[in-house]
Every structure is written in C-alpha cells, then in structure tokens.
Structure to design on (973 residues):
C-alpha cells in the first residue's frame, strides 16, 4: 500500500483499484476509441431527455451536490456509504473529471462485484430459499461475485446460469432447484428476468391483450422439461443437474404434448448434439434477440434510476413515451456494440447528467417520474444498511468465530448476524422506491444489536476513534456528519451539536452525546434513503 | 400546505413525548376506547401450536378397550358424551366451549412438509412463498389504532420449517413479534439462555447502558434533523419513513412494556397457569387479548416435544399436564373478562400420531386421521365432529382437509376465508381454500 500512496490518485482508489483494473473493460484505457463512443452515448441520453423536458415544460432538478453524488454512486455501485475520509478527499478534489474518476474507482472495487452478486441473487431467487439451501445460496453468491469481478459479458453470465450443471460446484443450479425443476415455473421466471416478459397468464389461458398464446408459453416451457436431478444423487453432490433425453410438457387439462418452440418463432428441431436447454439458452442470449438486450438495459437503468424506462419491453415503438422507448432502443444497440459489457453500460449511465441530478425537484407538480428530471429516492436495502454500518464502525469479533463453521458450512465466510439482520429487515419484492417497513423492523434498527455496536460508548469503534483530545467539538461533529450523510453539518446543525457537546459534564458523557448524534442521524430519513 | 400543518401537529405531540416520557398514564383507557370503537378489533385468535405432532389417541380421540388405546384412561367432561384423556381434567371443565374435530386427513407426514401444509394451507413448493394463516389473519384484523403488535408469538420453535411461521409474500412487516423465543439477534448476545423465560418484546427499550437523559437527547436531535431535512421535501416515501419511526418510538412507551410484564400478575395467578413457557405464554396471551392484540400464538414444548416415537406415554402425560393448566386457566380468565366470546382458540400440530404403538412404546407420524380442537368465539362447543374407526386408523365420518380447518378458523373469527392476499406476481390467493365446518360454528 505504501508503494502506491505516492501516486497522485487517492489512497482509497488504490486500496482496491490495482486488483481489478486489468480485468475491467476499457476503464483504464483513456485513449481508447471506446471512450469517444461512451461520451457520445452519454451526451445522447442527456439530449434525448432534455428534448422531452423542453417539450413538456419540465425544469430538471439541479445537479446533485458533490457529497450527494458520492453517496449515491457508492450505494448504487458498491452497496455502501463512503467513509468520512473518502468524502473529505472527494469534496476537496478539484479536478473537473472527478465524478467520472470516482465511477471508475467504484466499478473497479471488489465491493462492486459483491454488491452486484447480492443484487442479482435477490433478483433471481426468492428470499426464503436461502433458509433451506444455505450452502447453494452462498455458492451462488460466490459464483456471481467471481463473474462480476472479471466483468464477464452479460450474455455469457446468463448463459452460465441457465446452463448450470453443478460441475461448477454448488450455486447456480439453485436457480432451477428454487423452481422445483418444474418446467413451467422455470419458464415463467426466465422469461421475466431475461426477456422482460410476463407470461404467467399465458400459462393457463391465451392472454387477451398480449401476443402470447397458451401454446407459446408451453412451447417455451418444453425447453426446460428435461432438466433433472441425477437419478441417484449423493448428498454431497445433490446440487448437480443433468439434461435427460426424456421429458415433455402437456397442455393443461389435456394429454397433448407441446413440442419445444421458440417464442414467436419456429419450432425447435430435434438436435442430438444440443440439449433442449442449450437450444433455448442460445436463442435467448443471442445478440439478435431484442427482448434479451432490452431486458438487460432496462434492468441496469432501473437499478440506477429506481424506475424502469418503459412499462413493457414488447412493442416499444407503440408506447406512450417515445423518448423513453427510443432511449431504450439506442441503449440496447449500444450494449450489443460494446460487447454486452455490463460495467461499461453502468459507467455510461452513471456518467450522464440525468443520473447526477439532485433528488430534490424544483417543480413537483409537472414532474412525472417518467421524465427522469430528478433522482428518485430508494430506501436503503437491508444489505446496504448492514454493510454501511460496518463501514461506519466495524464490529468487534466477540471471541467466537462467526461464519460458515457455525452453520455447518465449513470454511465458507458468512456472517450469521448479517443473514439474520437481512432476513428480518427485508421488504417484499416490488418497487425499489417504496418504503415498506413495519414498526417491529424499525424498532430492530433503532434499538437492536447493530445500532448498539455503532452508538454505544463502550462498543463503538467509531466513537472510540472520535474520542481523542486532538479533535475539537466542531471537528467531531463534522466527522459524524461526513461519515453518515457524506456532507458537512449545516451551520445550524453544527452550532446545535457543538453546544450539546459543551454542555456535557464529563468526557464520558461527551462520547455518549456523540453516540446519540449518530443514533439520531442513522434513524433519520436523510440517512435511510439512497437519494 | 395541509400536509405541513399535520406534520407540525404530530411534531408537537412527539416532542411532548420526548420530553416527558413517563407521562403516559392515560394510555390504557384510551386504548380500551379504541378497542371498543373499532368493530374489527373485537375478534381475537389464540393458536396453541403443538410442535412435533400431538397424539390424538392419548388426548381428544381416545380408543379405550382397543389395543391401540394405550395406557391412559378416559374421563367424562362437562359436555355430555364428549370424553378426554384423564390427564386433561381441568380442560374437561370447559368442554362446553370446546369442539373437537376428529376427522382431519392430510397428505404430509414429514415435520417440515406437514408444518408448512398445516400452517399455510399449501404444501411447500417453489415459486410462491405462502404466508402462515396466523400472519394472514393478523393482517385482516390489524388495527392502526393500537400500539401493540398485531401478532405476538410466544416461544415458537421454527427451525423445522422457518417459512411456515412467517409472512411469506406479505412481507416482513407482517412477521410476528416473537417473545420468549431466542432469536438469532438475541442468541448472538450474551445470556441468551437466561432470557428464554423472559416474555418481553424485543427492542422496545433502549439498549443497556443508555439512560433516560440520552433517550431524550436522541429524540430531540432526531426531531431537529427530521425537520431540517423534510422541511422542503414533500416526498411520499420520506413521509412514510418519518411516520413509521414515530410509530416505532411510540412503542417504546412504558405502557407497551407493561403489557408484556407478567410481574404485574399475582403469584397465585402465575402459578395457576403452570411454571413453564407454555403456561406463562397463555397468561401473556390473556393480557395481550385484553389489550386488543388480534393474534397470539403460544407453542408447547421445546424442539419437537410431541414427537413421541419412544416412551410416548410418560412424555404425553407431562405435556398434557402443562397443556391442561395453561389452556384451562386461559379459558377461565377469558370467560371472567367476557373475552372468550370474541376469542377463538385453536389447538393443533402438524399432524397426529399412529394409533398403533411401536416397539419402543412410541407412536409415529400419522397424517391420515388426526384431531384438532376449536374453542371459544364463534365456536359451538361441547361436541366432537367426525369419527375415526375403532382402531383409529381411518376417518369413517365427515373427513376434512386442512383447508376446511383453516376456513373454519377464519369464519369463526368473522373473516371470510375467501378474502384474498395478492402475490408479488399479482395472483390472488384465498386465505383458506376449503369449506368451513358449519356444524361446529356458532
């Protein structure tokens, strides 16, 4: 680390960046023609949105403040709030391109890979499955993390998941097991996740308003009818999957076998070299499969902006908002042209002015969220909360060795406290901008163990670090705000907090008062959201 | 504009709370009033959950004179013709309010699968995470006017099938408030063992070491930061967050803690319920129902206590003694308070046990013909519904499935089993798929 710190890039970047730069797309190569292509795309996104704002008479929100942007990008790309030291460095950095540089650093951080592995795991599996298949759920997370770390092409990532056999160890096969190896369940999930189609209704009847007939659905499901567990699985390899030579689906309430058929396309031909699953996977992940590409960019967009670009990925040319559908199409082309490079897509989107707008709308009334004229706020996810608490104040290891051993998983590194916290703080799947806790969840955050580790004078590491004679009261207060909200306190907040500290009658009480400030901030609405 | 006025008013009341946190004396009457004015609030349910699957043959569907009957004798109850095991004498006094269903037949004989089926009404399957019937009913009966949780679960042993005890797709905000169970959060801290008998609600107090002065300081600071941030931000999700933290703060009032404080009961009352978690849980259930909590669950037995593959008789005898003391006193005290009419009680496990006795003097899993017991509100007591054969191995009359049992529970509580929950994929799911057993409904 010492070796790198002489460089003019910050320590923070260096602590991660050297690990990942060789693997990441074109981030490191500023002379690459790809940079120009990216810059063009960034400008194109912003000009398309700006045209629409002009047409609709929408005044966009101002550009987010530096700290606001830093916190947002860190949460979206790395799943945690930035450290106080990182906030200080970023605020004092005067280079005009510092936001772009930050994005590069965040994409190169190992936290990028684990955060996106978490996001994907939550996307593709029901939450409850973890309790029953812990080993495979942890395996899947590792499998995903490893792929995001080397920025595997998006199409290859999906291929790997859909073609899992268990040769890769416990993990990706869980996707099939989570759907009980039932072809219609797998079909319904895979078409939604990777093609952006809601085929669930077509399972039982012809959909009155959609193109998909019941036969289309079952023709699609037929591709997954031959994925099986091995006949005599041993316990240690029970996660394995095979493609059997037999297995069909029947049209419901009939004896009619539905042959495999690609959606809106031809029947599949019997192929002795390729399993049915291989055939559908290659069809789905083809660069010519527009639904596949659209679904990918739409997901990336909604991950960052909190809202999908379009309501449906079919017939995008007939949608109400032509701007958004055009944006979707151009992003889809761009994603194909840049080789399904997910990091590059995220880099492009986060470099737009639209992504960097403040969350604070100037004109509330005229501002439909579909205009993307201000940033929507997303409540922190349980994972973001837990991991951010640890950034604020690492937990002390209480003697015991929390982790895989405790749960009978050998050396797998998992934190049972984190799992339990996440399980209990979880909201049902749905709109990422909605806040849906119950009071017991709020109480768990307010008075639970995790908060105690942050705010208790005896246990909190951050309070331990603040409790030093080298810091004035004002500096202590400032550090608390930078570490939590990524901004300095307002003048009023500073004055009030400093006064509170001065009123304390002992050093111990002063530390407690700092803990109380942390408590109040961390339970505040400002902290609770990624804005 | 209206919005900000409202929030100012809320703010003022909240500040008052923060500064004088102990001035909550007028709260219980206010609560009682809200119970009286909210018609949906009048119904309660207490689920007595028997971990491991209790033996029907040694409790409520005895087979005296048959080789399968076992060691226990039958006794008469207050209800003519209805007979229980000799180890349930106190409960026999309340038989006029009890309806035994002796003809349940289900298809899952494994603890995890059986628990899932019985508690959610659906066998486990990928795709849809069904909520337990307890979460569904608590959601139906939830009240915004009560500070107490809608569903309190005493000492649940959920390891066998965690999903069966949770809210599934309804979301964690409908999860039960667990007391006396050792949650992992508590298990990770010290003294988890000692806390097992402590039926207090988690997280409604400041953590140890935080004094009341700090509590006031925290709330004042929080108010200030909220005001600074929300002043110019009229965003719905922000308001929702603000309101929820305020509600949660309200739950830290001493009156909430008091509801869970069994020390307020006399020693003689406490001892009548029996010394164990189950008995004390029944006492807590009575206190919570008095305060308007719609759903309370009390589990009997550590681990799979009723899973009596060996040595069935001495185990069932000791479990029956706990059951008898806790349940009978619960009935008596609810009756005294005029709450039994509005409180439906259901006694049930994941399946029954084989009528035949195995080589280890035990009984094994048996889903083909087993019993549950309804009591109290909405139930026509003093009867047994359905009949098993003389050897107890098959249902001979009025066979019911688990959907029928759950539909009966809903109906007894005044909730239509046809009410729907909606899955994340927008598919409606009925609370219970089945036909209510009219004959035992009042």
């Amino acid at each position: 680390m010492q070796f790198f710190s002489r460089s003019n890039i910050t320590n923070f970047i260096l602590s991660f960046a050297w690990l990942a730069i060789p693997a990441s797309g074109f981030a490191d190569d500023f002379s690459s023609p790809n940079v120009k292509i990216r810059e063009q795309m960034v400008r194109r996104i912003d000009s398309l949105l700006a045209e629409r704002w002009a047409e609709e008479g929408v005044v966009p929100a101002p550009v987010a403040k530096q700290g606001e942007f830093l916190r947002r990008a860190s949460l979206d790309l790395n799943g945690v709030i930035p450290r106080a030291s990182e906030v200080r460095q970023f605020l004092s950095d005067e280079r005009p391109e510092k936001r772009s540089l930050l994005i590069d650093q965040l994409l190169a951080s190992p936290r990028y890979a684990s955060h996106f592995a978490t996001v994907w795991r939550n996307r593709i599996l029901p939450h409850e499955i973890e309790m029953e298949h812990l080993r495979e759920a942890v395996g899947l997370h590792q499998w995903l993390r490893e792929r995001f770390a080397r920025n595997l092409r998006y199409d290859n990532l999906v291929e790997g998941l859909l073609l899992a056999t268990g040769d890769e160890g416990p993990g990706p096969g869980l996707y099939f097991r989570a759907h009980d190896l039932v072809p219609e369940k797998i079909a319904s999930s895979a078409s939604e996740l990777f093609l952006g189609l809601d085929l669930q209704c077509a399972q039982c009847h012809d959909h009155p308003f959609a193109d998909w007939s019941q036969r289309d659905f079952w023709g699609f499901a037929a591709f997954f009818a031959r994925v099986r567990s091995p006949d005599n699985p041993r316990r240690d390899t029970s996660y394995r999957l095979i493609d059997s030579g037999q297995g069909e689906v029947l049209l419901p309430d009939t004896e009619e076998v539905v042959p495999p058929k690609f959606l809106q396309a031809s029947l599949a031909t019997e192929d002795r070299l390729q399993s049915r699953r291989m055939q559908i996977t290659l069809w789905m992940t083809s660069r010519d499969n527009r639904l596949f590409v659209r679904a990918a960019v739409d997901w990336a967009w909604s991950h960052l902006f909190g809202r999908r670009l379009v309501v449906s990925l079919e017939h995008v040319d007939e949608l109400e908002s032509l701007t958004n559908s055009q944006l979707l199409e151009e992003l889809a082309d761009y994603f194909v042209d840049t080789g399904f490079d997910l990091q590059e897509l995220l880099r492009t989107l986060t470099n737009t002015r639209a992504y960097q707008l403040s969350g604070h709308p100037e004109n509330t009334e005229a501002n439909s969220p579909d205009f993307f004229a201000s940033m929507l706020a997303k409540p922190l996810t349980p994972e973001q909360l837990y991991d951010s608490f640890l950034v604020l104040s690492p937990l002390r290891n209480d003697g015991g060795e929390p982790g895989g051993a405790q749960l009978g998983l050998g050396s797998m590194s998992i934190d049972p406290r984190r799992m339990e916290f996440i399980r209990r703080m979880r909201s049902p799947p749905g709109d990422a901008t909605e806040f849906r806790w119950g009071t017991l969840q709020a109480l768990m955050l307010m008075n639970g163990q995790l908060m105690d580790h942050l705010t208790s004078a005896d246990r909190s590491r951050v309070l331990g670090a603040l409790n030093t004679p080298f810091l004035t009261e004002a500096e202590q207060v400032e550090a608390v705000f930078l570490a939590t909200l990524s901004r300095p306190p307002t003048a009023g907040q500073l004055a009030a907090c400093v006064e509170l500290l001065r009123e304390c009658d002992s050093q111990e009480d002063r530390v407690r008062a700092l803990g109380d400030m942390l408590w109040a901030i961390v339970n505040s609405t400002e902290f609770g959201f990624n804005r | 504009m209206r919005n900000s006025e409202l929030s100012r008013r809320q703010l003022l009341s909240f500040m008052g709370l923060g500064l004088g946190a102990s001035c909550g004396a007028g709260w219980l009457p206010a609560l009682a009033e809200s119970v009286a004015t909210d018609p949906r609030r009048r119904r309660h349910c207490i689920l007595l959950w028997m971990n491991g699957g209790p033996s029907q043959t040694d409790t409520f569907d005895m087979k005296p004179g048959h080789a399968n009957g076992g060691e226990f004798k039958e006794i008469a109850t207050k209800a003519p013709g209805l007979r229980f095991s000799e180890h349930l004498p106190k409960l026999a006094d309340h038989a006029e309010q009890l309806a035994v269903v002796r003809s349940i037949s289900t298809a899952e004989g494994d603890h995890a699968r059986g628990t899932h089926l019985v508690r959610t009404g659906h066998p486990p399957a990928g795709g849809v995470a069904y909520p337990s019937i307890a979460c569904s009913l608590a959601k139906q009966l939830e009240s915004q006017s009560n500070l107490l949780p809608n569903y309190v679960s005493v000492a649940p042993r959920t390891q066998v099938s965690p999903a069966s005890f949770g809210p599934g797709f309804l979301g964690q905000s409908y999860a039960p408030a667990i007391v006396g169970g050792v949650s992992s959060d508590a298990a990770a801290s010290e003294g988890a063992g000692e806390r097992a008998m402590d039926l207090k609600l988690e997280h409604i107090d400041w953590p140890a070491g935080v004094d009341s002065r700090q509590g006031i300081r925290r709330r004042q600071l929080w108010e200030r930061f909220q005001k600074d941030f929300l002043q110019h931000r009229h965003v719905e999700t922000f308001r929702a967050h603000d309101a929820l933290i305020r509600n949660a703060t309200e739950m830290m009032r001493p009156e909430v803690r008091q509801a869970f404080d069994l020390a307020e009961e006399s020693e003689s009352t406490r001892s009548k319920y029996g010394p164990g978690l189950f008995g004390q849980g029944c006492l807590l259930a009575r206190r919570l129902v008095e305060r308007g909590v719609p759903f309370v669950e009390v589990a009997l037995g550590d681990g799979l206590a009723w899973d009596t593959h060996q040595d069935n008789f001495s185990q069932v005898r000791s479990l029956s003694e706990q059951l008898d003391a806790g349940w009978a006193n619960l009935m008596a005290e609810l009756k005294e308070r005029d709450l039994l009419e509005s409180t439906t009680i259901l006694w049930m496990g994941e399946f029954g046990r084989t009528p035949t006795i195995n080589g280890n003097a035990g009984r094994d899993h048996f889903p083909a013909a087993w019993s549950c017991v309804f009591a109290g509100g909405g139930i026509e007591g003093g009867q047994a519904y359905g009949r098993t054969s003389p050897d107890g191995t098959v249902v001979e009359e009025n066979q019911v499935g688990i959907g029928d049992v759950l539909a009966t529970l809903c109906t007894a509580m005044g909730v239509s089993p046809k009410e729907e929950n909606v899955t994340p994929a927008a598919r409606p799911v009925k609370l219970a798929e089945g036909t209510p057993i009219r004959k035992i409904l009042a």
Remarks:
- Residues 100 and 384 of chain B are 5 Å apart (CA to CA).
